[in-house]
Write a structure and sequence with these properties.
The complex is a heterodimer of chains A (230) and B (186).
Chain A (H helix, E strand, L loop, with lengths): L6 H13 L4 H13 L1 H18 L9 H9 L23 H6 L4 E2 L14 E6 L5 E7 L3 E6 L9 E8 L6 E5 L9 E3 L11 E8 L12 E6 L1 E2 L1
Parallel strand pairs in A: 1-9
Antiparallel strand pairs in A: 2-3, 2-10, 3-4, 4-7, 5-6, 5-8, 8-9
Helix pairs in contact in A: 1-3, 2-3
Chain B lengths: L1 H18 L3 H23 L2 H18 L9 H19 L27 H12 L3 H13 L3 H8 L3 H23 L1
Classes of the chains: A alpha+beta (230), B mainly alpha (186).
Chain lengths: 230, 186
Amino acid sequence: MELRKFPRLAELLAASYVLGTLQGRARLRFAHMLRQRPWLARIVARWEDALMPKALTGPARPAPASVWHAVQAQLPGHTSPARMATAPAQSWWRASWWPALSAALTVALLVVWFWPTPPQMPYTAVLTNAQGKPTWVIRANAHDMRLRTLENVALPQGHSYQLWALVPHRKPISMGLLPTQPSESPILPAPDHIDMQSVELVAVTMEPAGGSPTGQPTGPILFKAYLVRS
Amino acid sequence: MSRSAEDTEELEQLLFATAQGDQRAFKRFYDRSSAHLYPVALRILREEGKAAECLQEAYLKIWLRAADYEAGRSPLAWAAAIVRYQAIDFLRRLPKDLPEWEEPDWERADFSAEEASAPCARERQLLEDCLARLPPDQRQAISQAFYRAATYEEVAHFSGTALGTVKSWIRRGLLALRECLEHGAA
């Protein structure tokens, strides 16, 4: 059905989309249509312009500080300021949180050939969960880490799983938050100052929702894996 | 009012810069907008933790989609829509417990203190005028759906009205609203 022939219906769908009464599969279908039809996106934009001002009434309220920290952690090139210090950073394996938690580590060291590896994806790591089941597969190159999630991941409420790149003699580098569902396959850009070839290990810690507020791991390492040239 | 126009222009410039990958501009956009956008998420999700998570995802989308922002639109309305959609997505993931509808009366809610300088005051006034022209059933149903991003079922449940009736009120109301808004904007 060509929606363009039914302008009233298009208006109604657009308004319902903005309002929120359009839901479920219909909402997903409409969102998909929006991406392919600029004329429909313009109708939605008009409804947004009309309705959103009313959503913006009321007193302003500062967002919690953790929100910006979490957003910033996912921006390209983000590194914790302490990394830039000239004094040698404490080796991560001597960090206070390491010895108590090494007993909880699960080490995966498989090279995975699930799919043909393009020449520009030279490194692979498989993160397995506590039961030894492969959970995340990471393909890393000079520019980014591409994730595939193989299983639904249980995550306690109010927490997140954060991925760290570990380079010898340096503090862990945040790559971002991990997805918890197989439908999510994000691409995590490499921070600007990191040569991905120097990354030996990736590790996963449990952090508060939105990621570590400090820029360094605050929670226990749950899984780690070596990046292997594939 | 001119202060509001300056704010809008600044926000617009910050969005353009963000679209070029300027992270400092994005931070400034965040600083200027987050206190307006946080309540949008809070009102729908009703919980600080969820609203914070929602806001975080929304700002990441704002970062990724800043290039989609078209000049001339309200930057805050554009961003607020992203927050709203994110909150709607979160809502559908939450357990289906329908809490009591202990709502203030949104139609007469007293936000009078800063109304004149609220963002997009002129657009909001037009919407209020058009809403006021709707039959009360349609207006109330739309208001209820709007403020909590409620589904037809939820509105029907809380107003004690048949689902089909609620749908028809909202649909007719939206079409009438469209007519009125077009005339008003002309």
